[in-house]
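Would you be willing to look carefully at the protein I have copied below?

:::
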Amino acid sequence: MVVMDFMHECELGTWKALFTHLVRILYALPGGDLLVATLDSRFCEVPTFGSGVIRTFANNTSKMKRLAARDFKDILQCAIPVVEGLFPLHHDVIVQSLLYRFVQWHTLAKLRTHSESTLGLLNKTFKVLSRQLWKFHDFTCTAFEMVELAKEKAARQWRFTQCAGPNSVPPESSGPRVKKFNLNTYKFHTMGDYVWTIKLFGTTDSFTTQIVSFVSFLALKDSSEVMLLARESWHTEP
């Protein structure tokens, strides 16, 4: 039986997809470049907390360059005050409620000790989060025409060049493609399976892929191999 992979399915999956689309919406708004710059400056103003709990943010968080799962976790934990007021008022309420429910679900799913009451709360929170996701999808996402980010366009054209040859002209090269928020994916679907998975196999920290990555990291003796594994395991491509 396949268990959940919280790091890749949530922090590098559903949350990354949601945050990416929030940045697309900001670009689609009037004065989008200024709004995104405000987003980045607010993240820079967030102080660090604890020993590796909240780390220092980069000055271009919206570009999401070479971010690890822990970085997306920090973005999620600090997103509510950072994005407040950046969206139109009626959409800002939806975004704030969605982020709150996502943080609540994320926190409950990562608990290292569960009881019947916490699992019941996790299940209830997921149902509320699902309604908020669909409200965001049906109301906020349909109010704007979002296009792919600059890095997404560059990555698409690079992939086309690698497949078709350096002299080929990529289709739709004159402008970015329209992007929609897609909830019909495996990673969003599995968010509803965490309660029974935890009941069967234990808390999510007992079967995360981070354990395998860390053990492999310690097993390697050559420093060059360690650095290569670190890049492959903890970082995403720009």
Summary: The two ends are 33 Å apart (CA to CA). The first helix runs from residue 6 to 28. The CA atoms of residues 177 and 201 lie 42 Å apart. The mean pLDDT is 85.
